[in-house]
Each structure stands twice: as structure tokens, then as C-alpha cells.
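Hi C.,

You asked whether I'd gotten around to modeling the 211-residue construct. I have! Everything is below, sequence then structure, no commentary in between.
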Amino acid sequence: MTLSRFSSAMIVSPDVWLSMLTRQLPDDQKDQENLTIYGYLVGAAIVLAFIRAHGFLLASLRCSERLHDNMVVAVLQAPVLFFDSNPVGRIMNRFSKDVGCMDEVLTKAFLTSLQLVLLIFASILVPIVTNPWILFVVIPLVVVVIRISKYYLTTSRELKRMESTCRSPVFSHFSETLNGLDTIRTRGRQRAFVDQFYRYNLDNSFVLSGS
């Protein structure tokens, strides 16, 4: 937390120094020492921003690895009833697509959203301090944004569930085809399994496209 506050202060420091330079005389603004200090502050801000982003992504990666290990242990220790009620494709879906999104998409999206939330909070706080009457505009907007966010999260969660449900048969069919490949070739049923695989993919594509 202390490192995060220090890095945030260093990121803002070039703007503060630049605002101080604008209050000086034009000749003083061209002073080499002031420009050198501003350059050092910009360089330090870039380095600290990189270190903060790298540390955040590294911590997220460790959390993802720990969650994946816990999932593997839970599946290996699960009773037989768990595998009877959950298809193989659904289990593979959790370990492939969902874990991939958690590793690649979630960390970047969370870091970007955190920075945007702090930026919006600062953009709202500064005008409110200078003019408290802005609260009468900000509060209704915040209520509207919260209502829209709740509606969006409910819809997005349902669409995600439908996507996972339609993707699970694809993984199940692929796994079953590989396990019974000798029998399929012996019976000459390759075309039937290929057509079934295309149908599952088509259903999944309809869900992804929102049809």
C-alpha cells in the first residue's frame, strides 16, 4: 500500500511541478535546472508506473496459479457423483477457457478499471471541493450509473452462463471422439461425428453472436 501511494504521488509529481513552472516568469521557466528536474520526475513516474503494473500482474498470476492448483486438487478428490452430474466438457471448459480468461483478460481489465476508477474519483473530488453545488449533479449520475451497472452485470452473467453451457458439448464431443476413435473408424461413422461437431460449434456461434 505504501509503495502504491508513493508511485501514485510520483506519477502526479510531473503535473505538480509543471503547474509550479507556469507560475514563474518566462525567463525562469527556461532555466535548465527546472527542465532537468521535470525530466527526472517524468522518468521516475514512467519507471514506477511500470514497476507497479508488473507487480500487480505478478500478484494476479500467482493468485491464478494457486486457484488452478486448488481446482485440480478439488477435482481429483471429488466423488464419483460429481463426474456423473458434470460432463467432461464442462470440466475441461473450466480448466481451459475460464482459466485462460482469468490469466489474460481479468488481470489487465482489473488494473485498467482500478486506474480509471481512481482517475474518475479524483476528477469528481477536485471540482466538488471548489464548488460543492456540483454534488446535486454528481449524486443522481452516480445512482444512474449504479443502476445501469447492476443491470449490465446481471445480463452479462446470464450470457456468460449460456456461453459456457453451449461450449461444454463441444469439449465433451471432442473428448469422446478421441477416446472412441478406433470404434468410430471401425464402424465408418466419421462423417456423423464430424457433422455433430459442426452442429455444436454452430450452436455455440449463435450464442456468441447474440442470435
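If it helps when you're writing up: The chain has a mean pLDDT of 76.

Thanks,
B.
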